[in-house]
From TrEMBL:
Oxidoreductase is among the record's keywords: yes
Active-site residues, Swiss-Prot/TrEMBL: E227
Domain of life: Bacteria
Single Gene Ontology MF annotation: succinate-semialdehyde dehydrogenase (NAD+) activity
Cross-referenced PANTHER family: SUCCINATE SEMIALDEHYDE DEHYDROGENASE [NAD(P)+] SAD
Keyword Membrane recorded: no
CDD domains registered for this protein in UniProt: ALDH_SSADH1_GabD1 (cd07100)
Family: Belongs to the aldehyde dehydrogenase family.
Species of origin: Ulvibacterium marinum
Pfam families (UniProt xref): Aldedh
InterPro entries found in the cross-reference section: Ald_DH/histidinol_DH, Ald_DH_C, Ald_DH_CS_CYS, Ald_DH_CS_GLU, Ald_DH_N, Aldehyde_DH_dom, ALDH_GabD1-like, GABD/Sad-like
Name of the protein: NAD-dependent succinate-semialdehyde dehydrogenase
């Protein structure tokens, strides 16, 4: 039995019966059967259904947003924005998928030669709770537009979100089996990956889980895309525009109550502006309103589970024990964790070395560009980095020095349907979104016609 618990008040929300082994196999067979028909549909047919999904999302934004907020504690205004972003990715691929997957003509000695993109089949998506709609839609929409079908293993604490997503696709007119939610325990995931009908796996989650999934899929020679953890740096140079940079850094770290892989978790500030910037940052963070996630004025809600808050508390306390200075927050009450700032953070502290999944940030001061880049790259992760500077030459000089999947200049790292999204090192491999993402689970078939 899967149970959804409201992390704000600890009240039970929903119960869900898990699939037994027979039911699970039936769902996968149904996915394979649906794929045989779905792969033959035209882009215009697929676009029509995806646009119907977008309309449903916009017409029922409030209903879906409240489910997100109740299940995992996201402030309601941010939940509304998440649903709207899901509609955006629908419109983007409904418009661009056909062009992104058209035959790629290549001039050779043949009369005609080209690359043809063909769908692989049912794709398993293992998705997290922190963006319970967006993470799923950025997988499902491009894959359905490409002719694949999807089966979802969602996080156990957001099963109502998972149920609603399947209902949205079916309500829009997608054939039964094109998108299915699998209510299963983690111990059944291996059998799903190993099922012959499942052709590929995508996972957003922790690095250890990603390594395990990749190993299982690899033993069956099945492709994986992994979007794993992040420990993004926010690098503030002395010539940054102060007020805009402060706002960007606050948003980068504290939106979604800090529960984001692409959040800016390490704040690196150049020494000549450090005192002024840190004071301004502290003032802005102190003004963030905490409270009931359903209140539209709340910016800091609660963490999705209490064990996550406990883990965060341990990281903070250990870093303070090692010499970090607590300049704001630091207290926990159940699933709530105060917005917290630590200064004098060094490379060996948990707040620097580990991913922190909550409203906590550590500040490290640097003197030179070289030192800044050493700090940025001194991480096992490589998802993204934000550089704040007014110097265009510096921007161009530092971009290739960042060992990251993304470099954002004067902006927080964020996902955008038009841009590829993903990381390197232990942040994973492969890309989601854009033309790059829609081609991940396609057979790039080489065609050569001599005469």
């Amino acid at each position: 039995m899967k149970i959804s618990i409201n992390p704000f008040n600890n009240q039970k929300l929903y119960e869900f019966e898990e699939l037994n082994a027979v039911q699970l196999k039936e769902r996968i067979v149904q996915a394979q059967s649906a794929f045989q028909d779905w792969k033959t549909t035209s882009f215009s047919e697929r676009s029509k259904l995806i646009r119907a999904v977008a309309r449903d999302l916009m017409e029922n934004t409030k209903e879906y947003a409240e489910i997100i907020t109740l299940e995992m504690g996201k402030p309601i205004v941010q939940s509304l924005a998440e649903i709207e972003k899901c509609a955006w990715v629908c419109e983007y691929y409904a418009t661009h998928a056909e062009d992104q997957l058209k035959d790629e003509i290549i001039t050779t000695n043949a009369a005609k030669s080209y690359v043809r993109y063909e769908p692989l089949g049912p794709v398993l998506a293992i998705m997290p709770w922190n963006f319970p709609f967006w993470q799923v839609f950025r997988f499902a929409v491009p894959n359905l537009m490409a002719g694949n079908v999807g089966v979802l293993k969602h996080a156990s604490n957001v099963m109502k979100s998972a149920e609603m997503i399947q209902r949205i696709f079916e309500k829009a007119g997608f054939p039964k089996g094109c998108f299915q939610n699998l209510i299963i325990h983690n111990d059944k995931v291996k059998s799903v990956i190993e099922n012959d009908f499942i052709k590929a796996v995508t996972l957003t989650g922790s690095t250890p889980v990603g390594a395990s999934v990749a190993s299982i899929a690899g033993s069956s020679i099945k492709k994986t895309v992994l979007e794993l953890g992040g420990n993004n740096a926010l690098v503030v140079f002395e010539d940054a525009q102060l007020e805009r940079t402060l706002d960007s850094c606050v948003q980068a770290r504290f939106q979604n109550t800090g529960q984001s892989c692409i959040a800016g978790k390490r704040l690196l500030v150049q020494n000549r502006i450090a005192m002024k910037f840190i004071q301004g940052f502290k003032n802005k963070v102190a003004q963030l309103r905490s409270g009931d996630p359903l209140d539209k004025d709340t910016f800091i809600g609660v963490l999705a589970r209490e064990d996550l808050a406990v883990d965060l508390e341990k990281q903070v306390k250990e870093s303070i024990k090692m010499g970090a200075e607590l300049i704001l927050g630091g207290k926990r009450n159940g699933t709530y964790f105060e917005p917290t700032i630590l200064s004098d953070v060094t490379r060996d502290m948990p707040i620097f070395r580990e991913e922190t999944f909550g409203p906590v940030i550590g500040i490290t001061i640097f003197e030179t560009e070289e030192e800044a880049m050493n700090l940025v790259n001194d991480s096992d992760f490589g998802l993204g980095v934000s550089l704040f500077t007014s110097n265009r030459e510096r921007m161009e000089r530092l971009i290739p020095q960042c060992n990251e999947g993304a470099v954002f200049i004067n902006e927080l790292v964020k996902s955008d349907p038009r841009l590829p999204f993903g990381g390197i090192k232990t942040s994973g491999y492969g890309r989601e979104l854009s033309a790059h993402g829609i081609r991940e689970f396609m057979n790039r078939k080489t065609v050569y016609i001599k005469n």
